[in-house]
Amino acid sequence: MNRAEALIDLGALEVNVKRILATTRAAGLAVVKADAYGHGLVPVAKRALKAGASWLGTALLEEALTLRNEGVTAPIIAWLTPINDDFEGAITSNIDLAIPSLAHLEVISRAATGLGKPARVHLEVDTGMSRGGALREWNDLCKSASKLVSEKKIEVIGIWSHFARADEPGHTFNDEQLRNFEARVSEAKSFGINPSILHLSNSAATLTNPKSHFDLVRLGISMYGLSPDIEAMGDSKKLDLIPVMSLRSQVHLVKDVPAGSQVGYGGTALTIKDTKLGVIPMGYADGIPRNADSSAGVLVGNRKAPIIGRVSMDQFVVELGNDSIARAGEWAYLIGGEGSDGYTADAWAKACGTINYEIVTRIGARVPRIFKN
Length: 373
Ligand SMILES: *Cc1c(COP(=O)(O)O)cnc(C)c1O
Hints:
Elements: E1 4-9, H1 10-21, E2 27-31, H2 33-38, H3 41-51, E3 55-58, H4 61-69, E4 76-78, H5 87-92, E5 95-99, H6 102-115, E6 119-124, H7 138-150, E7 154-160, H8 172-190, E8 197-201, H9 203-208, E9 216-219, H10 230-233, E10 245-250, E11 253-257, E12 262-263, E13 269-270, E14 275-280, E15 297-300, E16 303-306, E17 316-319, E18 331-335, H11 345-352, H12 356-361, E19 369-372
Parallel strand pairs: 1-19, 2-3, 2-9, 3-4, 4-5, 5-6, 6-7, 7-8, 8-9
Antiparallel strand pairs: 1-10, 10-18, 11-14, 12-13, 14-17, 15-16
Helix pairs in contact: 1-3
The structure holds pyridoxal-5'-phosphate.
């Protein structure tokens, strides 16, 4: 029996992908960067394709190459490739590459020239986020790309950008970015660049802003059954999505302690009555944030047991309560659980001052992923 495991419900993933894609005429790209947000790169990618996604997206080239080595033949775009990346390997393996700058265009087209095989590229335009993509360089980038297309060194498959505030539906900045995107696409067309795929939407825009769907929507967090922003958009239930990851660990130890006991490093918490504590053998080495407060905890013995004291590297303590029936060796669910009135990734996010994305993505490599359904 594993000390801890992340249960990955691939059936739920499939349902989520189908539900979301049923609401759009655009094709779907499953975003599987960062080990599929901690859910397991290869099984998630394969199941998302089976569910109807037709593209895959990764940040790193290594992630894309891993998928190719696992026999995945669907189109894959890698959008965060440093300038010294293995572009020969990418082109040879038919990985589409994002082009955020003239410098990238130059090294990637050089690699293509060397191989005698055009690179498949997606020109990335900065429409207001000031992160990835070309801003002032856009015109020059289009001009150079157009020349390289005529020389058969690249094929421009797509033009794309990314929203900064899609999780604030109705915010005027979304309209501004959309207008920018359309204007930049027109500029590209004036250089004779006419890609078949325009893509702009992440999950939040896919769920709330049909005008921004274009030809392809990039689904990340929603596919994993989580809300892009529970305040602005509601939680998984509200969005009709099923969380894909549950997380559980065996209770290591159950013991009685008297009132007034200090718990954990720094003695930051005191028991206020005689009580039972449970030691859970997961800690920040497993991606359980050290700053989690007592609004998170575990579901064990049919009830919620909140964290007490600081999370340590490999363990944390929960207050089970005097009358708890929890015993060493049984499963304590940090996320989800039977009946699932347990804690959610959203609850952990709130307890740690972060977002659900970070909670699931940071679950450590030493926690095995168990795939079901
Ligand atoms: C991560 C990422 C996405 C997915 O965002 P979600 O909010 O998880 O849907 C889409 N596009 C790009 C470029 C990304 O980096």
